[in-house]
Design a protein that fits this description.
alpha+beta, 2 domains, two-stranded parallel sheet
Length: 194
Amino acid sequence: MKINDIFRWTKEFYPDFDMEYARKLADMFELNLKKTVKSLSTGYNSIFKVIVALSVNTPYVLLDEPVLGLDANHRDMFYRLLIEKYSETQATFVISTHLIEEVSNVIEHIVIIKKGRVIRDETREELMSCGYAVSGKASLVDDYINEKNVIGTDSIGGLKSAYIIGHLPKEKLPEGLEITKLDLQKLFIKLTEN
C-alpha cells in the first residue's frame, strides 16, 4: 500500500488524524507519499511511523525506538517536532529507547526497568539530582567512597571512577579527587548493569 493510501485509511480509524500536518511532515522529511511502505529503508520506515504517530491526535502515543535508522539531522528534527507537538496538546508521549542521552532533554519522567522490575520511577530532575562520580587515584577514591551508596566503578591503570547515588557533597573533596554529576546514560548504565 502506498503511504498516501495509508494516511487516508488512518483517517478512517482515527477521525482526528491531521492529514494536512502529516503531509507537511512528509514534505519536511522528504518522504515520498507515492512509495509503498514495503519499499522504504529502515530510516524512512521510522519516519513514516513517526509522522503517523504525531498526526493521529490521540491522548496517548507510544513510541518504541522512534529514531531507529534515522540520521542525526532527522533525529534532531523529530525531537524538535515532538517537543512542539507536546507543548501544543494535552497528549502523553511514552518513549521506549536505548538512546538514553539523546532523549534526556526531551523527557520529563523516567521509568527504569531491570529484568522486568521497575527500579526507578521518578522525574528526570529527581533522578539527575541524585547521582555523581568521583574520580582520581584508586586508593584515594576507595577511601572516599567508604560508607557511600556506590552503584559501580570503572578502573584504568591506577585511576578509578566511582558512581554514587546521593547528593553532591558540600564538604571539600580530598586533594587529588574530582567530582562530576552523572549524565543520564551513565546513571542508567550503572543502575542496570550486573
